[in-house]
Amino acid sequence: MKTARKIIVGCLLVGLSHAVSADMVEIILQPSSLIRRGNSYIESGEIEKAKETLSRALKSSLTSRQRANAHNSLCVANIKEEAWSEAMLQCDAAIEIAPTNWRFFNNRGNVYLGLGQLDQARESYRRGLRIAPKSKTLATNVAILEQYAQKTKPKYMKPRHMKPRHIKYEKPT
User: Fold this and answer.
1) For labelling, which of 15, 18, 51, 150 has a CA lying 20 to 30 Å from the CA of 140?
2) Is residue 21 situated within a structural domain?
3) Which pLDDT belongs to residue 7?
4) What is the pLDDT of residue 1?
5) Domain-embedded: residue 99
């Protein structure tokens, strides 16, 4: 054990003794102003402006995280318009980029819920809960889902589409 420590310390000292030959560049990442503006448009109900602004953001230079957030915001904008197919595409794109963000699974669950696909909604919410077990948003949406599932019984009836005002969505932070 002492030998291993000596080797690690020796490696660290050797690494520190060499001069850094590369130029140092400080990079400060800030949220994209286009994404911020798009989210403001969503909050104020200006969905077309939001979609246009977020689409422009996706054409700009973004980090992976910013790109995932822009897709998620577009998902939310499409949920608000009940454009379920486009919302699903955007949620899936966000999840593909950042599969550990519970908000993206929440919003995909909302799309499934809006489509009346309760089993898929339940699974998406569960995946989100595995990432963020204490999420109040997910817990609320699961409760809404279960309440809605009780109303749509008997099982031979196909569930109706759900209006987006009943569900909680999560925009990027």
Assistant:
1) 51
2) no
3) 42
4) 47
5) yes
* Cβ(161)–Cβ(114) below 8 Å: yes
The pTM of this model reads 0.73
Q: Which domain holds residue 111?
A: 32-166
Q: Is residue 14 part of a domain?
A: no
| pLDDT for position 150 | 86
Query: The domain that contains 138 carries what CATH number?
Result: 1.25.40.10
Distance CA 142, CA 137 (A): 9
User: Is there a domain that residue 23 lies in?
Assistant: no
Q: 44 phi and psi, to 5 degrees? A: -90, 0
Q: What burial class does residue 54 get, using C-beta atoms within 10 Å of its C-beta: 0-12 exposed, 13-18 middle, 19+ buried?
A: buried
The total of other beta-carbon atoms located within 10 Å of residue 19's CB is: 4
> Token pair of 62, please?
């973004």
Give the contacts of 60 (CB within 8 A, at least 6 positions apart): 32, 34
Residue 112 CB neighbours (<10 A): 24
Q: What is the pLDDT of residues 75-90, one digit of tens each?
A: 999 999 999 999 999 9
- Residue 138 is encoded by which pair of tokens? 């997910």
Q: What's the rounded Cα separation, in Å, for the pair 64 and 26?
A: 19
Q: Which residues have CB under 8 Å from 59's CB, separation 6+?
A: none
Total number of domains constituting the chain: 1
